[in-house]
Amino acid sequence: MPKKYKTIDLCAGIGGIRRGYELAGCFENVLSAEIDKNACLTYEHLYGENPMNDITTEEFKQKVDDTDYDVLLAGFPCQAFSRAGKQEGFLDKTRGTLFFDIAEMLRRTTPKAFMLENVDNLITHERGKTFATILDVLVNGLDYKVIGVTKDENGKLIYNARDFVRNSRNFGVPQNRPRVYIMGFSRKHFGDIVDSLPNELPTCRKKPIYEDLHDLLEMNADDKYFLSSGYVETLERHKSRHESKGNGFGYKIVNLPEIEHPVSNAILATGGSGKERNLVIDPKKGVAGKVVASKQTPLNDKGIRAMTPREWGKLQGFVNYAFIDKKTGEDNFSFPEKLADGPKYKQFGNAVTIPAVEEMAKFMKKCLAELNK
Fold first, then answer.
1. Of 248, 266, 72, which is closest to residue 176 (Cα–Cα)?
2. Which of the following is catalytic: 40, 78, 204, 367?
3. SS3 for 322?
4. DSSP code for 300
5. Strand, helix or coil at 80?
6. Which of 40, 209, 318, 348 is the most exposed place for a label (fewest CB within 10 A)?
């Protein structure tokens, strides 16, 4: 029986990182933290525990101190580091950000390993200084071997920031979603044997879940997802205006017939632009010109609609993948009853792509097995 590693799930959202690790088969979660009320409701609905905890508080850090765990997981947001303060230590440079709080917990509890996930902007933020500071804190300040980082003879960190970016579209789902993954293993626990670990994170998943969007979209969607004719006209005007200035902004239809293997653009927590850059053509009969109470003008005659929350859930691996019961084949993913579409889009847009995280978790499992030999 493989060893079970205990994880803590910080900035947890609706638990995508946790689920990706659970799917790898040897990780079990023992503590979670999230402050968005709606996300907490969904998390509780899925996992039977409420993660409402604030990682910036001393009270929560104390909870972490008192928890026996092996691996820290966090999908923290990208924030600017202030240049204020005396900057006496590594950690001081990051004060006032959620990364500071995560680093503080790593310092106090020294877990065997960690994985952090972030938007791909993290590597270019402040012309790369933010990312350099983060790696400096993790490697030099906290004594972790970070996958993808080595040192030269003068102790200078050697890395290529692009090596930390992985795209969801290479992990089984048709979504163009680059994200940064940072994984580290503790020298205090394992010694210098950590330097013998592979120095590159997984780049893809062997077998795709969907070939492309054709495989994922569910046609004949509910009328409410079709755009009104007035809204389509507004989007077209907006796009022409930008095109005349040479910009590529504006709505996108992602399953146009001429695209052989369509993929979606990144879905966003803000909903709006994430939806408009992921419109689809759904040739449902009887939709054109239909009057729907919630729309100011009749439905458009081009069959253009927004993707449904369920389709967004499939793009992130929550629906039709991560919660399928292996014995019965039944999909156990659902939202709490009466949750409106708005929060559903937001929660999926904020989430991680579970199949990508699952590959990271399998890689960590192999590394830990190697280190524990």
1. 266
2. 78
3. helix
4. P
5. coil
6. 209
- Per residue, the 3-state secondary structure of 146-181, as one string, reads ECCCEECCCCCEECCHHHHEEEHHHCCCCEECEEEE
What does the block give as tokens for 252?
């996108």
CA pair distance 226, 306, nearest whole angstrom: 6
Per-residue pLDDT band for 47 (boundaries 50, 70, 90) equals: very high
For residue 82, pLDDT over 70 is answered with: no
- Residue pair 70/189 in contact (Cβ under 8 Å)? The answer is no
> Is 204 one of the catalytic residues?
no
pLDDT of residue 94: 75
- Could you read off the pLDDT of 224-282 as tens digits, one per residue? 999 999 999 999 998 898 888 877 778 999 999 999 999 999 998 875 567 999 999 99
How far apart, in Å, are the Cα atoms of 4 and each of 25, 57, 73, 100, 131?
8, 29, 15, 28, 31
* CA separation for the pair 238, 304 (Å, rounded): 16
The DSSP bridge pattern shows strands 264-265 and 175-176 to be parallel
